[in-house]
Amino acid sequence: MKAYLTRRYWFSASHRLHNDELSEEENRSIYGKCNNPHGHGHNYALEVTVSGHVNPSTGMVCDLTELDSVVEREIIGCYGHEHLNALPQFEGVVPTSENLALQIFDILKRKFHAAHLERVKLDETSQNSFQFAGGRELR
Amino acid sequence: MKAYLTRRYWFSASHRLHNDELSEEENRSIYGKCNNPHGHGHNYALEVTVSGHVNPSTGMVCDLTELDSVVEREIIGCYGHEHLNALPQFEGVVPTSENLALQIFDILKRKFHAAHLERVKLDETSQNSFQFAGGRELR
Amino acid sequence: MKAYLTRRYWFSASHRLHNDELSEEENRSIYGKCNNPHGHGHNYALEVTVSGHVNPSTGMVCDLTELDSVVEREIIGCYGHEHLNALPQFEGVVPTSENLALQIFDILKRKFHAAHLERVKLDETSQNSFQFAGGRELR
Amino acid sequence: MKAYLTRRYWFSASHRLHNDELSEEENRSIYGKCNNPHGHGHNYALEVTVSGHVNPSTGMVCDLTELDSVVEREIIGCYGHEHLNALPQFEGVVPTSENLALQIFDILKRKFHAAHLERVKLDETSQNSFQFAGGRELR
Amino acid sequence: MKAYLTRRYWFSASHRLHNDELSEEENRSIYGKCNNPHGHGHNYALEVTVSGHVNPSTGMVCDLTELDSVVEREIIGCYGHEHLNALPQFEGVVPTSENLALQIFDILKRKFHAAHLERVKLDETSQNSFQFAGGRELR
Amino acid sequence: MKAYLTRRYWFSASHRLHNDELSEEENRSIYGKCNNPHGHGHNYALEVTVSGHVNPSTGMVCDLTELDSVVEREIIGCYGHEHLNALPQFEGVVPTSENLALQIFDILKRKFHAAHLERVKLDETSQNSFQFAGGRELR
């Protein structure tokens, strides 16, 4: 009776794609307009998928308010309404959505234990999504 | 030439999350406002994923009208426009979306044989989804 | 420099369409499956449109946190996670989405004064919307 | 035979809501987290509505490629992938979505003449929209 | 107590934008790839808005099953799963979405009388919408 | 540090579901209204999922402009604004969405090498999706 539960969250942030160790030409060539000096931003949509057995007493995989409070405190409270490049977590790390999804997966892996974390999916725009499953194959 | 086919359906129902074997305090603590005495409701979105080889003559995995008629008769005809707690299927079972998805998976497994049932996904709101794959890993 | 501002909210509730003053046959004929005895439910999406001049100092029509707190307290806190038929506001009133939209418009008209209330739009499902503009032509 | 035509565009940008003429306390009080020093961003969705008679020969209100090229050059080419506060257009103007919608309306009014500009609608997030109709009542 | 009610429908059709009275060069110049000889297609989304007073007994503006049966018989049954250019209604008429919306408005005006027809909105793609209000200003 | 990247594209096309080797009765029975002689059409939404390690220097799985240019040239440039039955690729092949998804997967497998192609998902309507993963289990 293993079930998968996905919950969606939204937050807004800005970023500039730029690697200080590359030349201006390389940065402009790799990142295009995403390398514009003052940055730009997105409404990120975050999907967190966890799995577990359905508890016969509650009928639930886990308490969603627990997941909500971890995501609110550790993810939205840290990345929401921020310029990612200015955060200590992105010192020396290019704030691509791949790297943001990876950080979010690592944080949830460490902080949320009420069910098994399967996957983090981050929509940057309606055209781009990034998924991370801890290096395992995606489920 | 194995392909996966997903079809979406919509139905409206209401439920109250409540376990008679637990105290009022436990129910209120576990389910919060979802434990409100008269219940509330949702527009459920159901995604059914089946798989199979593409038939070289028809170019199709299976006849969708067959899937439609099973879902219409066995799922929407049973759960649509109903208060789940009042249905015999939920006697002694808390009508969480996990348990509803599980019942839907079991019904389709028994009644639909034109292709392999892979997965049932039930959106309760735009923020919550529940998936069930018969106990196997999700595909 | 008059601008229009629309903000969206979501809440879940259940209802049974039934008028006690009509016969069972009339109720069944008028409301169909929406007359099922135990009710069913929806994820309602509420859009509130207000208008006003853009304040040259703040660049805003009005403070959205003010609108949010009125909607949270007076609308979502009253109708969310409830069975509409069981509420005193619907005693003797059939809880159709037309009547729900009308009540919401009247409440906001009385309680929100930071900008001009133009319109309330209530989505019952992805197929049905109801709008109310206080009897005036819709803008 | 007057018809209304709406076309949608998307662009990403960042902004910080801040008025230099107000104190830090006032800014923080008015704009909340939107006043965070390094800004944040959005995927803006822009809807442009124009009207006109349907040309009996072409069956169209106007040539959409003309609207597309004006929007591409004058709107997306100017605001897309930018930090709005760093643009000359927002010198001394708080880059709220009200003010951004107003600027977009004014630009289109001056640059697009193939049909009558009715309305500009700017979605900042899935929860907030701003509309501007040149000071006239909204249609 | 005047309310506005909007109902959405979906149908698929194909068309080729081409005016026989214009030269090949003119057709290609006006319609671009939409002039490709064998046509292409869309999932059209149709929104019908009607208005009226809320009936104090039923709590409804009108019986939606009546609107549904007119739309099903007169619109989806005629245009759905068809190549618009091959229909008699489009003999000598370019099947643009403007002209399709106009035909739909006229049909509903003649066939649906349970409430006042306000507006027809036809989404051709997620980027293009066409609205028609019988020549009156849009509401 | 393996990540999955999904990018969405949209194109419009038309098709008639018909197999010349079957009788008219068989075609009508199998395909229903999709067998209508002149065809009908859809706004197809294409999701391409690729995987790879996050490049520590760029923070990206691969250069999206490379994927965009392959999809633009090989998929949208070939199938967009076309009647699929009239294309040489569908000579003797019924242009179902299963077969279209299969052709798209094969083209991308041959032409795109900047990351590992995992999956192609093709939405025909908001109710139907088709996925193909090269015969492997879906991820």
How would you characterize the overall build of this protein?
The structure is a homohexamer of 139-residue chains. Helix content of chain A is 28%, strand content 31%. With 139 residues, chain A is an alpha+beta fold. Chain A has a single domain (2-132), classed as Tetrahydropterin Synthase, Chain A. Chain A has a five-stranded mixed sheet with strand order 3-1-2-4-5. The two termini of chain A are 17 Å apart. Chains in contact: A-B, A-D, A-F, B-C, B-F, C-D, C-E, D-E, E-F. The interface between A and B is medium-sized, with 21 and 26 residues. Strand 1 (2-15) of chain A pairs antiparallel with strand 5 (128-132) of chain B, so a sheet runs across the interface.
Topology at a glance:
6 copies of one chain form a homohexamer.
Chain A: E1 2-15, H1 24-31, E2 40-53, H2 64-79, E3 82-83, H3 97-111, E4 116-123, E5 128-132
Parallel strand pairs in A: 1-3
Antiparallel strand pairs in A: 1-2, 2-4, 4-5
Helix pairs in contact in A: 2-3
Which features characterize this protein?
homohexamer; 139 residues; alpha+beta; Tetrahydropterin Synthase, Chain A; 5-stranded mixed sheet; 3 helices; elongated
How would you summarize what this structure contains?
6 copies of one chain form a homohexamer. With 139 residues, chain A is of the alpha+beta class.
